[in-house]
User: What shape does this take?
Amino acid sequence: MMKKATAARHPVSRKFKLLCSCIRDFCRGVDFTVPDRMYDRGRHDGAMYYATPQKLLKEIFGCIDPARFPNFLDIGCGKGFVLWKAWEYGFQRVGGIDFDEKMIQICQRNLQKLGLEKAIQPVFGDACQFDHYADYDVFYFYNPFPAATMASVIQQIIAQCKGKEIRIVYFRPRYPEAIESSGLFECRHTFRDKDTGYIANVYHGIIPR
Assistant: This one.
């Protein structure tokens, strides 16, 4: 009986934390936390927007030296929460790309509210067609794509980043084979979010010339 009671309280705790985060956002005049049912806009990939937990981000950033890897790209950046926190952490160049126009509009408003619209400029576009991966050395994914798209984006990164040492962060990694099958990357760190149980893998790799 005690185990059942504990399990029943856990989802309520998560919802309460989400509500508190939404209220904090509202007081700041930003919108990073409210979930978004992106598939209601005609998308067929089952997409749902959630912000990455802040505590988990601190752990992830803690294993990446921004002096050595100063350029950060969030692929599927959504409302821009990770972009904001990456800038705060000390990455010199922070960028984002998203294929959902509404998400990019919200992201731009959030960054403008924080006074970061000139420092961080997310773009609306197709990650499979993005041609500036070589400008970055840290790539962040929060499970943004189905398997085929994920594989295509990783191949684009490899093709454009020849001769570079890079880091890939994959939160809630449904298709890790897209990264691991290349044989170029080693998963050196794995972090787990206590509330959701989701993990984040941090891959290190050197792309041959």
About this structure: Strands lie at 71-75, 93-98, 123-124, 138-142, 165-171, 185-192, 199-206. The two ends are 60 Å apart (CA to CA). The helical segments are 2-28, 54-61, 81-89, 101-113, 147-160, 177-180.
